Amino acid sequence: MVRLPLTFAEIERGQRLGALLRRARGERSMLDIALDARVSPETLRKIETGRVATPAFPTIAAIAGVLGLSLDAVWAEVNQTKRDSEPTGPDHNARERLVS
User: Fold this and answer.
1) What is the DSSP-derived secondary structure letter of residue 69?
2) In the structure, how many helices (H) and strands (E) does the chain have?
3) What DSSP string describes 74-89?
């Protein structure tokens, strides 16, 4: 089976996921979190560094559970775009105008 290349959006989403997990892990050992989540430390490292941009849902669910993150919070942060997080510029209300 040939795997299609990741899109730029998927790569960015994977980087946001990795950053979120690193922040949530804080000073805790990557090894401890990985073992508690029943994933390999290498898998966790690859996710945290963005090398695995589209990890399996059960993997993320297990890691989020160990870190005390709700899946809703993970989903919201990972799918947030730069424009969503930094509403600036002349068209920053464009979405609101379209919805109204």
Assistant:
1) -
2) 7, 0
3) HHHHHT--HHHH---S
Distance set, CA 25 to CA 4, 15, 30, 48, 82 (Å): 31, 15, 8, 10, 23
Tokens of 92: 């920053």
Q: Taking the CA atoms of 75, 57, 16 and 95 in sequence, report the sign of the dihedral they define.
A: negative
pLDDT of 3 reads 80
Is residue 78 within 8 A of residue 17, CB to CB? The reply is yes
Closest CA to 16 of 77, 68, 72: 77
Handedness of CA 33, 38, 42, 44 (dihedral sign): negative
> Is this prediction's pTM over 0.70?
yes
